[in-house]
Design brief:
By secondary structure, the chain is of the alpha/beta class. The protein has 10 helices and 13 strands. It has helices at residues 54-62, 70-76, 81-98, 102-105, 125-134, 151-160, 176-188, 241-244, 247-259, 273-282, and strands at 2-18, 21-35, 38-44, 118-120, 140-144, 165-169, 191-195, 215-217, 236-239, 263-266, 288-289, 307-308, 311-312. A hairpin with a 2-residue loop joins β12 (307-308) and β13. The longest helix has 18 residues, at 81-98. The relative contact order is 0.15.
Length: 321
């Protein structure tokens, strides 16, 4: 078997801003694994928040033995972007070798469409209202927040999209005091969920606090080893394959989290349809699906995922799985 990795760049449809900064393109790594004439592929998005760079993740992948198996991979690499791309590529390879779809190999039903959130970039309130008006036809909007002055942004988006369901993502940008002040207004404005209001290292402050709106762990939840630290703080876990280190662990995290009483959100980094394709399997029946990465791009992979009124559909075999 041979493993290759390359950098690919996808232009964004518009500048995308969160509390940590802005970007105009998505830089991803594409991994291909080839054996006996079959090629499987996967994609990951290295994330600086987790001390990942394109170069560091590439080095991790290139250091793997050429004959690595999906089972062995779980111990050879930690949860993160590198393992994600290789794990998903190996799933794709196994499916092609077997002449089956990945969900058949995993013992899952064929995926059905799931309504996905559409993310509104962090901006001044007037601009965020304009974004909301433009996307008010979408059933679920996600607002990027995370500043001390977010109340006006919340009001602006709700005014611009009065019928849409709304979730908010603070990206660790609030303090405990800011969150406590905002929480009643989240209820008033009909917010369904709030993601990671406090920094991951400071989220013990959530213990004992009222959570009138479900609180979701994002940066605080990577894989199953994260779960013991979430008790009493969170109601929902956000499963992202670039955090879990691939589909293998993502499916196990979903099963374990549900068994422990958490609800599940399935999210993504800003990547192409190839990165979202495996996540559509994890998203089946999730409380919230947030796989809008391709909708934020100005360009995408061939045989891209289909998005319509029913939501995001599972991948065609020509794309993945």
């Amino acid at each position: 078997m041979t493993i290759t990795v390359q950098k690919d760049v996808f232009k964004l449809a518009q500048v995308f801003t969160i509390s940590r900064g802005s970007r105009t393109e998505a830089q991803v790594l594409t991994v291909r694994v080839e054996r006996d004439g079959h090629v499987g592929w996967g994609e990951c998005v290295p994330y600086a928040r987790y001390d990942e760079t394109l170069d560091s993740v590439t080095a991790e992948i290139k250091a793997l033995p050429a004959d690595v198996t999906r089972a062995a991979l779980q111990d050879l690499l930690p949860a993160g972007a590198a393992r994600n791309a290789v794990d998903c590529a190996l799933w794709d390879l196994e499916a092609k070798q077997a002449g089956k779809r990945v969900w058949e190999l995993a013992g899952l039903p064929a995926p059905t469409p799931e309504i996905t959130a559409y993310t509104l970039s962090l901006a001044e309130p007037g601009e965020m209202r304009e974004q909301a008006v433009k996307n008010a036809h979408r059933p679920l909007l996600k607002i990027k927040l995370g500043t001390p002055d977010d109340m006006a942004r919340l009001e602006a988006v709700r005014a611009g999209a009065p019928e849409a369901r709304i979730i908010v993502d603070a990206n660790e940008g609030w303090s405990a005091d800011i969150y406590a002040d905002l929480a009643p207004h989240l209820v008033r404005l009909g917010v369904d969920l709030v993601e990671q209001p406090l920094p991951a290292g400071e989220d013990d402050a959530l213990i004992g606090m009222e959570r009138p709106v479900p609180v979701c762990a994002d940066e605080s939840c990577h894989d199953r080893t994260s779960l013991p630290k979430l008790k009493g703080k969170y109601d929902v876990v956000n499963i992202k394959l670039d955090k879990t280190g691939g589909l293998t662990e993502a499916l196990k995290l979903r099963e374990t989290a549900l068994a422990e009483g958490y609800k599940v959100m399935v999210g993504c980094m800003v990547g192409s349809s190839l990165a979202m394709a495996p996540a559509t399997l994890v998203a089946q029946g999730a409380m919230v699906t947030d796989l809008d990465g391709p909708l934020l791009l100005a360009e995408d992979r061939d045989c891209a995922l289909r998005f319509d009124e029913a939501g995001v559909h599972g991948p065609d075999a020509a794309l993945w799985g």
